[in-house]
């Protein structure tokens, strides 16, 4: 096969292939001088009024009823005879609802007014496929609608046209670009794989193919070559900034804790990125849920609190809003394996110093027969609209393709 076939053919292939940490040294003999010299550029000046959004994906479908527990509702214990959490193991927020006992750090933030809980979030005609429901949340589509761009990507298209390409407008901590960032226009959107570097041999082969048969600059391959070089320079900047970062809070050693520490480091460096995305996976608890879910929530609680404390110690807490989401909740009824199956609605957390803390929205009704699903009361796109309009300063109708009633946590 021709050596040119080593090149990626699409943007998605490029993102998967080039942002996992190939390493600039593998390309130094091919890199244009202006790109290699840019590594010596100064750290960008911090913008004290710049609002930043951090998205935390709870991959697998978080069980909302055992996260925000309706401990006074007899129906909860009827539907969950073995999984229902008793009051001695809970952290009451009021006389009806409590956080899981694994979340004392989130309870502290809640009492400090730095945590909002939006109850019973979902969407009409829910899909119970992990892949499809994640796609719906990330593209903000109707359940029967398929979109090629994400809700954040459309925000970038409508509000960030002409943004400088020298620094990433969005960063994903992970290997693959989330659908939320897909856009019509080209932006510097970067995925960082946490220091795991691919063999230099593969990158060298790719650019050797380019050297042997260089593509025209105005061709798709020429564009990808230039984009690849920019990505490598961005990676080296990111690695340098993280290497020099001194956190002022103690992070847990979990993957989520590490990811949030990296996000804090990039924010503290003054990197002008508007949106960050991290993942916390493992929430598909079909069997023996109690211990697994407790561990996952403990990691979430510890990681989010450390992140907020770190930002506060650096004087950055007023610039950052952090929001969790999951592709769906779990069914109210436990199954025969002492787990829960794919469901519909669930609560989500919003964290920051500039929000209106407390409970928002209405709790779900549990007057249900066995194996029936919750009926959502808050459309997730209303939360997106609130964030776009009131935090990022954009136009939610352009980004979401419609009007959604905001929720008063901002």
The helix-and-strand class reads alpha/beta
**CATH secondary-structure class:** Alpha Beta
Order of helices and strands: HHEEHEEHEHHEEHHHEHEEEEHH
- The dominant shape is globular
How far apart are the termini?
56 Å
Integer count of domains: 1
Strand content: 5-15%
What does this structure look like?
The protein has one domain (3-26, 59-400): Alkaline Phosphatase, subunit A (3-Layer(aba) Sandwich). The protein contains twelve helices and twelve strands. It has helices at 11-18, 33-37, 74-79, 104-111, 130-139, 151-159, 200-212, 220-243, 255-268, 289-313, 380-390, 396-400; strands at 52-59, 68-69, 90-92, 98-100, 115-122, 170-173, 189-192, 275-281, 320-325, 346-351, 358-360, 378-379. Strands 1, 5, 6, 7, 8, 9, 10, 11 and 12 form a nine-stranded mixed β-sheet that branches. Strands 2-4-3 form a three-stranded antiparallel β-sheet, with helices on one face. The termini are far apart.
